[in-house]
Design goal:
The complex is a heterodimer of chains A (166) and B (186). Chain A is an all-alpha fold and 166 residues long. Helix content of chain A is 55%, strand content 0%. Chain A has six helices and no strands. Chain A has helices spanning 4-8, 15-25, 45-71, 111-114, 119-151, 155-165. Chain A is rod-shaped. In chain A, 20% of the residues are buried. In chain B, strands 1-2-6-5-4-3 form a six-stranded antiparallel sheet. Chain B starts with a helix and ends with a helix. Chain B has one domain. Chain B has six helices and six strands. The radius of gyration of chain B is 20 Å and the shape is globular. Chain B is of the alpha+beta class and 186 residues long. The interface between A and B is large, with 58 and 63 residues.
Chain lengths: 166, 186
């Protein structure tokens, strides 16, 4: 048997070699123009938008909180004298205010109530309480003016006034 | 499609950013910082800032045994803040109407109602404003102006006016205090 077919494809073909040719032929070099893969850019816009939204929200929230905290000065800025450190030694303390009527007095409290607080918290709470009392005194003081003014128009006062004049 | 998806992303962002503004829409808290410059002219200043956290802390210290404190405790339950600016001057005309207008413009906003307006040349003017959130009272503002005094009280939260009225005269503020002073002057 000649091997010419295997060498230059002349002569009688060997069926086994033909079968192998068919199988391997699919892998034969086939010249074709170079085709670069189409660059399929992924759309990152939604991700960027979400990230930007979160970032903006955080920044806006931060600014808002900061502005809010600046608007609300700490109570220590108010003209309040902080209470003494121990409960037993707590003496009535005053708040520098415009009139004696607006003086807040700290009364000693039960240790059981205060024990739940840390020292700092207790001081803060006492200062807040004093401020609260001042605020309420001022409010009631102003409201009492309204009360007086409205009372002066009642018949009872008219009678009273008549009695005074008489 | 792209525009639609962008809008879908933008809308929550806008809503997210608008949340603080929407939350403040019905806020009873007044901006009192515009009055701070008066502190330099005043001979007496009262500056009270008690927010919700401090209010709760203070409420814990209010005794149930003391009648006055018990009433105060009942009053402040549920309140979110009390803010006061009070200035007393040596001379008249230290503050301007513009100073008060910065506050009045706020209480002219939606939800606010002027409850009382007392005008007295001798004792000063008092205006009481209430903020209603539906049928509930959401806040109170008291504006007091006198020649030598300017006071603004702002209570944030559901104020019970009946309870507040009960405190009148209980907290060391005799109802006839001003009259007494005037009698003494005479």
């Amino acid at each position: 048997m000649k091997d010419d077919y295997l060498w230059d494809k002349t002569g009688q073909p060997d069926p086994e070699i033909q079968k192998l040719e068919e199988i391997l032929g699919t892998l034969r070099y086939q010249p074709k123009p170079l085709q670069l893969p189409v660059s399929r850019r992924r759309n990152y816009f939604p991700l960027i938008a979400i990230a930007a939204s979160l970032l903006l929200a955080l920044v806006a929230g931060g600014i808002w909180l900061r502005a809010r905290s600046q608007r609300i000065p700490q109570p220590r800025q108010a003209e309040v004298v902080l209470p003494s450190p121990t409960i037993d030694e707590a003496k009535p303390e005053t708040i520098r205010d415009k009139s004696k009527n607006a003086i807040a007095v700290n009364r000693p409290h039960h240790r059981s109530v205060s024990s739940a607080f840390s020292r700092r918290e207790r001081e803060e709470a006492l200062a807040a309480k004093e401020q609260l009392m001042i605020a309420l005194r001022l409010t009631t003081e102003k409201l009492s003016l309204i009360h007086r003014k409205t009372q002066t128009t009642t018949p009872a006062n008219q009678i009273k006034n008549q009695h005074r004049v008489g | 499609m792209k525009t639609l998806s962008r809008m879908k992303l933008t809308m929550p962002l806008i809503l997210l950013l608008a949340l603080p503004i929407l939350a403040r829409a019905q806020d009873a808290r007044l901006q009192l910082s515009s009055l701070d410059h008066l502190a330099a002219k005043a001979n007496q200043t009262v500056d009270v800032n008690v927010d919700e956290r401090l209010m709760k802390a203070a409420a814990k210290l209010l005794s149930d045994k003391d009648a006055d404190e018990r009433d105060v405790k009942k009053l402040v339950e549920g309140l979110k803040g009390i803010y006061v600016r009070s200035f007393e001057f040596d001379n008249a005309g230290e503050y301007t109407t513009a100073d008060m207008e910065t506050i009045r413009t706020q209480v002219r906003g939606p939800g606010w109602t002027r409850l009382v307006n007392v005008i007295s040349k001798k004792e000063g003017n008092v205006e009481v404003y209430l903020l209603f959130n539906g049928e509930q009272v959401g806040g109170l503002a008291v504006l007091y102006t006198e020649e030598k005094e300017l006071t603004v009280v702002n209570i944030v939260g559901p104020v019970d006016l009946e309870k507040l009225a009960k405190l009148e005269g209980q907290l060391g503020v005799p109802e006839l205090e001003i009259e007494k002073k005037k009698n003494n002057e005479k």
